[in-house]
Amino acid sequence: MKKQRILQADEHYTEVDAYLRDQGVSCLLLVCNPWISRLRIGKYLDSLTQRLGIRVVPFSDFCPNPQVESVSKGIELLQGKHCDGIAVIGGGSAIDVAKCIRLYGRQNPAGLDLLQPAPIEELPFLAVPTTAGTGSEATRYAVVYAAGEKQSITSEQCIPDAVLLDASVLKTLPEYQRHATMMDAFCHAVEAFRSLNATQKSEAYARQALTRILESMDSYLRNEDQGNTQMLHAANLAGKAINITQTTAGHAMCYKLTSLYGIAHGHAAALCVRQLWPFMLANPERCIDPRGEAYLHDVFVRLAETMKCPIRRNRRQSYLARLLIGWRYQLPKP
Ligand SMILES: [Fe+2]
Predict the structure, then answer these.
(1) Cα of 184 to ligand 1 centre, how many Å?
(2) Distance 273 CA to ligand 1 centre (A)
């Protein structure tokens, strides 16, 4: 797995300037929603041409659950404008489109073959996530739709080589989304713990993610810069964990709650995880995990230690800890 560079955001985005200079970018394809011009990062990107001589080519022709046609249009622009770098600012859909543009960047955009990746491996790829939840910027997975069918794509070449964790993009996040996306990151980390694909490395990422979530959630929910930055870090770490393990039962079950009832993804995942884990704890004799009941018991113990379950130093920590024993965490109404 390649190493991802984490850039910190100061007022003038000096680390982004340095990254773009290091990579020798002269023309940047910017995958984003049009509203990013209202954000501080949008104004920074507007200044790139004047300050560093870097042309910026915006691309916003995509929608939620992006279609393969959007990827084709992005590749057409990338090739036609001779872009030598990609940046994406957005949530899961924008990041999925940008990943696919890079992965299929050498193909003829008129007829993309999703089974034949043709990545532009040397193309610098910077992601700026606008929620602290999906961790998509850290994973090798992308989803696009072709002729109405969901296409799941997996490639190391999907992973951005740099990520900017910019607390200012979370400032205007609606409260419900703020909670739901945090719970998405939380569920990624919890599910990674007991995945069949779990490794020492994935567990280390999951532990770090959970620790940061517990430590920063008060500040994050108060919409403070420090909490927002820490939660972006936590979501990135949880993304790195599921990049190794993939998600497990909680996520597998939650998609119907979103498609049938419009419940936000992270909220739906939390609703499932809080039912699943108490069930597993209460019914060890029904364990069909090939690693055995004793192994899973150890996993539960390590997870409880990470969650500081016996300590419950403050109320918010116990909110999360109680997810494991069936406490009903109440998110704000959508
Ligand atoms: Fe998720």
Answers:
(1) 5
(2) 11
Does 20 share its domain with 161? yes
Claim to verify: residue 220 and residue 129 sit in the same structural domain = no
Say yes or no: 159 and 10 in one domain: yes
- How far apart are the CA of 183 and the centre of ligand 1, in A? 9
pTM of the model as a whole:
0.90
Are both 107 and 200 inside the same structural domain?
no
pLDDT number for residue 65: 85
User: If you measure from the C-alpha of residue 274 to the centroid of ligand 1, how many angstroms do you get, rounded to a whole number?
Assistant: 15
For 222, residues 6+ apart whose C-beta sits below 8 A from its C-beta are none
Q: CA distances (Å), 145 to each of 48, 63, 179, 245, 296, in order?
A: 33, 11, 28, 24, 37
Which domain, by its residues, includes 244?
173-323
Q: What's the gap in Å between 17 CA and the centre of ligand 1?
A: 31
Are 298 and 204 part of one and the same domain? yes
| Angstrom distance (rounded) from CA 68 to CA 114 | 9
Tell me what pLDDT residue 314 has.
46
Is 333 within the bounds of a domain?
no
107-135 pLDDT, tens per residue? 999 988 888 888 888 899 999 999 999 99
CA of 56 to the centre of ligand 1 (A): 31
CA dihedral sign of residues 19, 42, 156, 146: negative
Q: 190: CA distance to ligand 1 center in Å?
A: 11
CA of residue 242 to ligand 1 center, whole Å: 9
Centre of ligand 1 from the C-alpha of residue 21, in Å: 34
pLDDT-derived band at 96, boundaries 50, 70, 90: very high
Residue 204's pLDDT is 97
> For residue 331, how far is its CA from the centre of ligand 1 (angstroms)?
16
Domain count, the chain: 2
Instruction: Look at residues 72, 77, 126 and name the one whose alpha carbon lies nearest to residue 97.
Output: 72
- Write out the two tokens for 109: 């955009």
